[in-house]
Amino acid sequence: MLGRIFRAGCVLAAAATALGAQISREEALARVYPAARFEAERVFLTEAQQSAAARIANVSVPSRLIARYVATRDGEVVGRAYIDTHVVRTKNESLLVCLDPDGRVRRVEVTAFLEPPEYMGSGLWYAQYEGRLLDDDLAIDRAIRPIAGATLTGRATAAAVRRVLAIDAVLGDPPGAEP
Amino acid sequence: MSQLTIFAGMVWVVCVAGSAAAAATQAEQEEEQEEVETLEQLGDRIDVLAEELERMRSGEPEAPMTPEEARERGLGRSAASVYERTDAGVSIAGYGEMLYQNGAGTDQSGAPVSTGARLDFLRAVLYFGYRFNDKFLFNSEIEIEHANEVGVEFAYIEYLAHPAASFRGGMLLVPMGLTNEFHEPTVFLSAARPETEQRLLPSTWRENGAGIVGSGGRVSYRAYVVNGLDASGFDASGLRGGRQKGSAAEASDPAFVARVDVEATPGVFVGGSIYHGDSSQGQFTDSLGDPFSVGTTIGEVHGQAAIRGLDVRGLWARTSLANAGLLNQALGLAGADGVGSAIEGGYIQVGYDVLSQTMREMSVTPFYRFEMLDTQAGVAPGSTKDPARDRTFHTFGASFAPIPNVVVKADYQWIRNEAATGVDQFNFALGYNF
User: Fold this and answer.
1) In what order do the strands lie in the sheet with A65-73?
2) Distance in angstroms (rounded) separating the CA atoms of residues B175 and B260
3) Across the interface, which of A12, A24, A150 has its CB nearest the CB of B214?
4) Which of B42-51, B209-218, B337-346 has the least mean pLDDT?
5) Which one of A25, B185, B266, B272 is most buried, counting C-beta atoms within 10 A?
6) How far apart are CA B233 and CA B331, in angstroms?
7) pTM of the predicted model as reported, rounded to 2 decimal places
8) CB B62 within 8 A of CB A50
9) How many helices (H) and strands (E) does chain A have?
10) Angle A151-171/A47-57 helices, nearest 10 degrees?
11) By the CB < 8 Å criterion, does B266 face chain A?
């Protein structure tokens, strides 16, 4: 009996491992913008930019320190990616929100999730954000469906994506960029 | 003094002045250069600090320290592990719910009944967790029920071997149904949990054990080995009394429980779970003195869809008990008081958040739930079926959440049974989580 249980567990683990989930930001960047070069920037928002981003996003922008990566290929900007770290319940989640040059969400990758894993959304759930711009429909129970039993994760993630899109709009194109 | 001397003197004065001016300009340039270098250094340092701060804040795992780096700190590899911690420390959260229930003055046949009203601070719960490092965490839920009963609902150590496969051991929530694992009052719409998930899947159902947890892509799963139920607590109303709740649990007979959910599309999932174990725990013998087992198999399927404010969820579950007749003899349960050899129940519920398409944070969700539960869907030879155990519930109500963490719920239940003794009930609840 225990042998059967162990074998079943191993099969399940192997299957799940093959599907993957949380990755480092460097892996995520390479996956989202293949063959691109990345320039890491730490941008300091002015107070006016912070207020403007919060107003546009309709969510709080708690920090003026922004981590941004500009992806270029053959000298051309192919995307911008932002790290957004926020509290889900009592522990942090960090997302790499990757944008296209026109400011649409290309991918949302989870680079850290410190709550118990069952409160994390699936890859399919995070894929709901792909192609989206900042509008009123970008919210839980509207264009974004909730995560059953993990309401707080869903709401925190939707707020993070709204925040990143607003910050990107406020900052404009990176200096010298030719999108 | 000759003119030549005067001229030479003037040349000398001009040269000295020129040299002094050139020296001054050079000094200024050097000073400016130093200032530029200093500013550049400061800029670099700010960049380094900003990167360090942002990386620390993110909670992302750091690259493991190399043996060379550990040596540089005068530490062995294990002693240096503390430097790899990411966001270690305590986390505290909680939830609670107060429930008011008031039964009707007559039953479904019109006969007067006296059920009275009850106001109960049903649960006050605190979660305590500790993250040792990026691989190990402790999580627990300490509950005070009815304001005076203390219990542990779960307490486990988890090893995060891979995001798609973790191992946990300790007191675990049995991963069955829609409510048992996610039982905070902000998660379910009705004031009280569905009856099927109290009698057949006896939430909050927790037992001691160990197992594997994981998810990836569209699939999530959990599989545990736990101490089994204790059949000495079963009765005609269901399995609820058989929970051992981790307290000096009889563990002669382990049980296996596994669950799989498949996310068809975001917000929509279907799944199922199965539990199997012997609930006799070596306690029972038949009339010949031979021990007998009480094989207990519970299966359930469930599904939920949450799309643009619409919330549809459903569940069906069935339990079958082996040797229910022998168990009834051993427990002295005769006639209609016997434990059912089969228990069946399920529900379907539809709700809609009428504020979902606005930018408001609050929600107002009217809902309807149809539920059936028969705790004696099958009876063993020698027992009789109590028609009052075969019940249907029609529940209309609404859930109002001014913010996502606070909920006020009210509903009315039309309760019918085959004995025509069902008593309708009004429920009101106040719940919170943080």
Assistant:
1) A37-44, A65-73, A76-87, A92-99, A105-113
2) 9
3) A12
4) B42-51
5) B185
6) 9
7) 0.78
8) no
9) 5, 5
10) 130
11) yes
